[in-house]
Here is the input.
Amino acid sequence: MNWSQFFTSAVGKKITMALSGIFLILFLIVHAGLNACIWANDGGVMFNKAAHFMGANVVPRVLEIGLFVFFLIHIIQGLVLEIQNRSKRGKGYAVKMGNRGSAWNSRAMGILGALVLIFLAVHLSDFWYPSRFGGLTNMYIDTATNQIVPAGTLGGKEYHDLYGEMLHQFTSYPWIIILYEVGVIALFWHLVHGFQSSFRTLGLTNHKYIGLIKGTGIVYSVIICLAFMLMPLSFYFGWIQ
Here is the structure.
C-alpha cells in the first residue's frame, strides 16, 4: 500500500484524524494558557505581550501554518468519515441495538464538529484576522515598568490591542457570547469522545488503561472548556477590566 492508498483507506483516514486531533488537543492547551493572561487584570498588558510574542516570532508562525493544515485535514477527514458512516448505518443491522451501541456524542461527532466549525469561523474573523491583517487599535507599554502609556512616550513599545478588541466584542454583542458558549459546549462533547478515541485508534491504550485515558480526557475537556467559557463571561460581567 502506497501513501496515497493509505490516506484514502478507512484505516488511514482514522489514523490521520487521530494524529490531527492530538495535535489540536495540544494546541488548545497553549491557546487556553495564552488567553488565561486576561485574568492578570492589568488592562491587557500581559495578554497583549503574549499575543505579540506568538504573532511576531518565526517558530509560532510556522506552527500556526501547521495548525491550519491539521485543521483542514481534521475537518476534511471528519466529513468523509461521517458520510461513510452514515451510508453504512443506512444499511442497518440484523439485530437493532438502538442507542445501546455507543454514547450519543460519539454518534453526533459530525453535528458537534459542525457547531465547533461555525464557532471557529466567527472566532477567526473576530480576532485572528484583524490581528494578522489589520483592524486593531494599538496599545503602548513602557518596556521598563510594564505600564500602559500614551503614544509617543519615551520607552513605550507598540502592541496590537487584542485585549481591547475582546473587551469590545464581549461587552457590546451578547449574541457573540451565546455563540461562544454553545460552541464551547459542543467542543466539550467533541473532546470527551475524541480524546479517548484518538488514543484508541493509535493503539496507545488497552483494557487495563482505558479507564485512565477516559478519565484524563474528561478532566482535560472540563478544564479547557471551562476556561474558554469563563473568558467572555469575565468581560461581560466586569470581572476583569
Notes: Confidence is low (pLDDT under 50) at residues 92-98.
